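fold-stage: in
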Amino acid sequence: MTLVLGIETSCDETAAAVVVDGKKVLSSIVSSQTEIHSKYGGVVPELACRRHIETISPIVSEAVDKAGVKLTDVNAIAVTSGPGLIGALIVGVSFAKSLAYSINRPLVSVNHLEAHIFSIGPEQEVSFPFISLLVSGGHTNLYLVRDYGCYEMLGRTYDDAAGEAFDKVAKLLNLGYPGGPIIDKLAKEGNSKAFNFPRALHLKESFDFSFSGLKTAVMEHVRETRIMGLEKKINQADVAASFQQAVVDVLVSKTIASAKSKGVRDIVVAGGVAANEQLRRELKETAIKEGLQLRIPSLQYCTDNAAMVAGIGYHKLIKGKIADLDLNPQADLSLVNWEGI
């Protein structure tokens, strides 16, 4: 039995988890900073960093206590080293290095994107190869995953990530932050065909994404309506539903097309936007229609958490991929060029 303590501080969640053999989650603690950043309409890096400093020690202690183990029972410490906000990453990596040194345990460096790809691990077995749609506030990427540590990028966003577009549109409509859950809920009350917002890069030969034009189309609609003095007549539910439909259409079509193009039957969706109800529903319906197998984590593993860090950390540990104590985080750490396992 191998116990791995995972630590995650790439953005605005301070998280720690203890996982057995990369599968069984003994504890998973997440401290969210939504209340801190909501007044600003987005994550403020300096505030995020300060909050991580305040909470990381008690969060790690809580994760170890809830797991019913002692810190010295842990076989390794896995930590997110990038990509993410550099200040936030420094807090997590520095704490993990100090902890690994103090209890004389190996340190494992984990790529945040890689952790998301395998966030399904604690709940379902993965079958290689598979297509991974990683869709979050910072990333919208399609990968062909051949094995642990073997990734081919098939498509990426040229501009805004899908989650970022949700946040920006929610801000345009004065709905609050984070925008994803708010728009997902409001869209249920609206008509998704009320506005024909653009589906950018909707080409069969491309698996890349672009959401900037869609965001601009929504912004122009809202701006023109306000100029005409009809702001009170803006139907937020219809705008939200039409916007969300445009995002979901592109995500579903490109994910399914990439799987068919590569002759891959299994699809795994991960990241914060994977919690979107309409995306989950339409992907499932389309996958069944096309004879494909869809796997999506439960909601608790869609957003940033440390169980996914500990899970992939275990697989790196057993392959002997140990980091030195001079490990430095990288804000723009790539997955394709990542050392892997």
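fold-stage: in (second)
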Amino acid sequence: MKFFFGSKMLDLASRTGIVAILNVTPDSYYDGGKNLDVSMLLANAKAALEGGADILEIGGESTGPDSKDVSAEVETARVLPALKALRLSFPDALVAIDTVKADVADAALTQGAVMINDVSAGRSDPNMFAVIARHGCPYVMMYSKDRTQRTTKQNMRYDDVIATVRMFLEERIAQALKNGIAKEQMILDPGLGHFISSDPAYSFEILERLSELQGLGPILVSPSRKSFLAGPENLPSSKRLPATLDASILAVENGALFIRTHDPKETRDVLRIRKNSKK
């Protein structure tokens, strides 16, 4: 499958797309504060690209439980300088923005970002669909039990979690189409962790049944160091890499086209090893 990011093309016919997470926030659950200094941001971006990342994704607002609302002005002040620095240092790199705000998305796309990842799937800002349609860029829409980007620790219960996710994504696809977004722009994320439920069983069920969503469009999955991987020992995010890699393999084997991760090199390596073992 080929994706076009402006004049650049990403061919994923024979490999998984790796989206490297580079949060420029002080409070993200794993990398909060690690990229606030420009030199560290560039060093981490360089390592991600050398490790096999296809896309660098900047996030300027945390969305986990207990995180704080961030104004568009503050988020823009975080995101745009980071975007400028990445584009100057890595002019050939594809840079995405993780935001639910139309103004932030519009400013970033105007200044060279090539994709928007919206955890609210257009529900948080009524102007987001218009911005995405006007720019014609790839657009990730994610399922979340919460209407806004601020997810909660609610122990949501489902009769059939995949049926619920599928119905939600079908509705958001229909709304996006009505607002001028082309089907080929859409990438779909079923959501994991607290975006689904505080019960980790549902996240694992989604990974195991991911193939049931393939007919909707290309799938992006982001298990990276999330709470559902903490296990009975309640491991901190710093110790969830092995579980993250296992979840990433499961996602790809069940149809994920993109993996969004804090650990692009390790993810690329384990997926390559897994693929070669099946030859």
